[in-house]
Fold this sequence. Notes:
This protein is of the alpha/beta class. The chain folds into two domains: about 15-145, Udp-n-acetylmuramoylalanyl-d-glutamate--2,6- Diaminopimelate Ligase, Chain: A, domain 1; about 150-310, 3-Layer(aba) Sandwich (Rossmann fold). Helix content is about 30%, strand content about 25%. It has helices spanning about 15-25, 70-80, 80-95, 110-120, 130-145, 175-180, 225-230, 285-300, 305-325; strands at about 15, 30-35, 40, 45-50, 65-70, 100, 125, 150, 155-160, 160-165, 185-190, 190-195, 205, 215, 220-225, 235-240, 240-245, 265, 270-280. The strands form five sheets. It has a six-stranded mixed β-sheet with strand order 11-9-10-17-19-18. It has a five-stranded mixed β-sheet with strand order 2-7-6-5-4. Helix 3 (about 80-95) packs parallel to helix 4 (about 110-120) and helix 6 crosses helix 8 (about 285-300). The chain is elongated. The two termini are about 40 Å apart.
Amino acid sequence: MSKSGSKTAKRTSVSVGIFLDVGGRDLNMELVAGEAGLKRRIPEVAIHRPGLALTGFFKHFAEHRIQVLGMAEYAYLSSLEVEERTVRLRRFFERKIPCVIMGRSKRPFPEMIELAEEFKTPVLRSKMITKHLITAATIIMENLSAPRAKAQGTMLEIQGIGVLIEGKPGMGKSETALALIRHGGALVSDDVTALRLDSAGSVLAAAVDVTRFHMEIRGVGIVHVPSLFGVASVRGEKRLELVVTLCKPGECELGGANLYAHGSRDFLGVEIPRVHIPVAPGRDIANVVEAAALDYKLRILGHDAEKELDENLIALLQRGRAGSE
C-alpha cells in the first residue's frame, strides 16, 4: 500500500456569511454590524484574541483570523476615553480583519459599530463564554474549510469499518449494500458519497443532503432505509478505511490472497486500501465484502492470516527436513 499524504489537499475558502449561517445556532451568535462584509473570506482556520493589538502593538498580529473579544479585551477598551478607544479600534479595523466576535453577550461600543460599517467588517455577538466560544468556533471552521471531494459509490459501516463499495453501473452495489444492512451494517450514503479531510488526516464520508438515508434499488425504486430497518441502520458520517471495487471476472486487478496487493485509492491525498471482488452469478458478494472488512479489521489489530499461514508452512517444512536428517 502506498504511503498516505502523497498529495496536498487544499482547504476550502470560507466566507464570514457561511460561518455565520452554519455556526450561528451552535455558537448562539448574531450579526450586530457590518452586514456589507459578509462575503469577506476567512483565510485562516484558527481563532485569535487580539490582546496587545488593541494597545497598538501589531507585531505578530494574526490579521487573517477571526478576532474574538472576551472579557479582558472588553474591560481594557472600557477603561479608555472615547477618543482614545476610537483611535485604537480604528487601527484594529484598518488591518482588514475578517470579522469580530464579541463574547459573553457584550454589546459593541458605538464607535465599533461605526467602524464596522465604514470598513465593511462584520461584528458578531455570542452569548458563550470566551474559551468555549473559541473552541467551538475552531471546530466549525475546521469542518467548513476541510478539503472536500465526491466519490461514486455506496458507503457503509461494516463491523465498525467504513467501507466504500464502488464499481461500474449494474455491478450490484446497492443490492450488496442492502444485504449488508440486513446483516447489521449501516448505510452512510448511496451512489454519491461526500468526502472531507479532517485535521487528523482521516477521510470522512457522508451522504449529500438530498439523498441522505435513501437508497435506490433496481426494480424497487427509492427506499428510506431507517423506515425499513430502524434508526440503527444509518450513520451520519464515517471514516473511510477500505475501498471495495466490484468488477467482472477477468477485469479485476487481482493481487492474490493479500488484501494490500490490490493497491489503494487516493482520496484527498490519502491512500485508502483497496480490494477487488469479482462478481459472478450465484456468488454471495455481501458475505465476501463483509469478510474483506473483517480481514482488514484483524490486520489493524496486528493479525495477518496470510503471514501466519506462511510461518506455519515454513515451520512444517523445517521440521520435515530435521526429521529426514
